[in-house]
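Structure, all two chains, one model.
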Amino acid sequence: MKEFEKYQIAMGRLPEYITEAEAQIERYARFTVSRENGADGGGAYSDIAELFVRASGDSGTGMIYTQQTEMNAMEAIEAAYRNSLFSVGGKSESMNSGNGKYEVKGTAEEKSNEEMRAWAGQLEKSLYETGYRFANLKLELSRVKKVLAAVNSKGLDISSEYLMYQLSVQAAVDAGAAEKDIVSMEYDVSAENLEDITSEKVAGILNKEVRNHVPLLAPRSGIYEAVLDESVVSNMLLTIWKMFSAVNYINGTSVLSGKLGQRVAEAKISIADRVKSPYTGYVFEYDCQGSKGKDVYAVEDGIFTGLLHNISTGENFSCESTGNAGRNVTLSGTIQTDTVVTPKNFTLLPGEKTTQQLVSDIRDGIYINHSFDEFHGVDCTTGDFTIPCEGILIENGEVQGRINNVFMEGNLLDIFADITEIGSDMYTFPIKEIKSYTLTAPALKLRKIRLSM
Amino acid sequence: MLKKNEIEAVLEKALSRNGDFAELFFERTDELQISMDTGYVQGVKNVCICGAGLHLLDGVKSVYVYTNDISFRGLMTMAEKASELIGTGRQQILQRPKINLQGTLENTMMPVNVSNNQVKTGIKLMQEADSAVRNGRIKVQSMQITYFGTVQKVQIANSEGLFTGEERKFTRIRYIPVVGDGIRNQTRFADIYRPCGMDAFVTADEHIGFGLELVKDIDTMKNARTIKPCSVPVILEAGTGATFFHECVGHMLEAGSIANGKHVLYGDKLGKSIASPKVTLVDDATIPGALATSVIDDEGAPRRRNVLIENGILKNYLADRLGARMLGIEPNGCGRRQNYTFKPGSRMSNTWLMTGNDDEEEMVRDIDRGLYIKTVGGGQEGDPFSIEVQEAFWIEKGEITYPVKGVMITGNGIELMKKVDRVGRIMGKEDGAFCGMDSGLIPTTTNQPRIRLSEVNLG
């Protein structure tokens, strides 16, 4: 990146009182075309560069963040150093060492704006050809280019660039014989190549929503054999991943603290955090500390085998960072500058049966197909959860109807131990506010789950 | 900073192919962040957010583009991109009337310098809070505190000639204590906000009391019991309890989400009864000293007091410019966004339930078995909506007894709002919180007097 060259030069000219310095630039360029109910729906375009500069002296480490990338490099480093002088009793943040320049570039083909428009139109046409009566259909197709580069006084000089495509769909279809019996859905998907963004998955989810739109029953409580839909499980991952963060593990706010190496789940369960995923277009070659991303098996065949580390938590465990240093973890309303631990492509690995097959195998039980607000309903310190949800009641192998305004309750460790089968259909949770990692899961069949009104 | 004639040229360029309205939103936000971990100052950081967004409308078709290259050349490039997106299919360059911006503004893109004394004062405030909390009677394993001192300067120019701006100041301290004996720990975060500089904390010790109260609340809940599923009366304490109205009805009245079919529950209920006659809900961005108060919204429109529900009757929606066009109503000063990287949307500000005439003590005394909710956390809007209960106590024979955990409230907004059978006389105050939607995370407040719901299903 052109605006970064001045930092590469400045790192070799640091004054003596600055013991270490690092500059990192992240650039996002996004182009979006929109289709709305059969017509051109406008679109969006953006191109943003963000600069993070750290500098350490005898007192500690200071930092500045700016979007004014034209700022003089040495002035930016000096400003960060001046902030370090306020540190009291702390220690300097660790920085990565490097051995020369290293560049990574994705292989995806960059499609033109016209090709994007044509693809969005084709996706929309395919969805209309499903035969559903759409009350509303909105598609946003985006091309996202992300460039990350970091250089420091210890020889780190890396850059990675990748491209991906994202599709966001909002749809409402008239599903029943009754007038205005509307079923709504929202779905997001991402892929490295535009050709992998297809209408089939969207149509599949639409079919499922319509199929599950059965008559409403009165809510009820009880303990049921259950299938949790893949969307429900991926939503729960929004909190579950924190149980595998080394930060939470160390400060005792993970229910798994102290259990590394122990069995924490049924042997069928494996959870991985990957640099690349077959289910998303996100690639995490480097994290925000310039550490190379590594595939981590957090749970392997039910055994708790790995934690997600940044440099400082790795130092606690005498191991290297797993490339999980991130900044965007809580909803803060500002630019987050504290380096914490965040996942990459965090995935509960699939089994063999489709969700439909898992549900068909239930004789008496419940298929939880929607859940709400897991962000507030799960306590990763204790594992306790109370999640508002909606489900399909099954008796004698027959669908009885839909129940809503109920809660599923219990403890995550009990859920892990009660899993009898794992589905093969995968769902990636669409995180609107936090765009820096992904959470993907299959459906789970459980011996029991407690439902309450 | 661009000259006025350059801004006019950018707007004209944006409208050169198509569209009937163009708006430029400039922002410069400077923020001081200080992090402290269990008494140690971990880092002092300066944050600078600086850029511009261009919103282009053609009827209800919308294009939003943004960049942090705010040079004339950078913004003309952005205008060209917007023009291409809105003008799809049109070959002919239209002749547009010349735009004349009214008035003059100072250069809003100048940096806000942070002095050493300000940093030292911020650190002193944090040390005071940290020391009081960790030397208190409750065992605290660790305590992270982050100080945010923010100055946001916005400037808005549009093709109707509007040229306006505002400077907004916020101070926030975030606390994340880990409370417990090291084996069984509890944690949660909480923020104290003030819509002004750090003086608010220098002249009063609220930051200390807030930290102590948070730790006490977390500690209280460590002995909380679970309750069996039941259907009982529920008291929502004055203050944050109004998050109930924010989630169950507030978001559903946002014009944009009604128009695009996301929320349909209240779309045809204007003038109809949707709540108990005791409910009068107002979204008022003009309340002096409230966190979400400002002079203009993020589209440059004057902020207003909008009565949403009056004595149970739905009176109004929250409307930004695009949402208003889509619903066929007038915008009412509710266009908000987190920063220039977000397209404005219809959003709440200070959404307060007005006081009633019921006795606060009688509400509890009158309950045989029920739940008293002291603090709620975040929630999710919709039908059903849900709210996390952070601190609650069981009521037995008119007395507040033991703490209760694992409770959430969910349901249909209209059904639950019809069950409001008591509204107290004393307005409670809370500091505010972030509310997240498509136009980003924005500060809001949700105040109310103590209220009672006659019957709620509790999980």
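Chain A touches chain B through 72 residues (CB under 8 Å).
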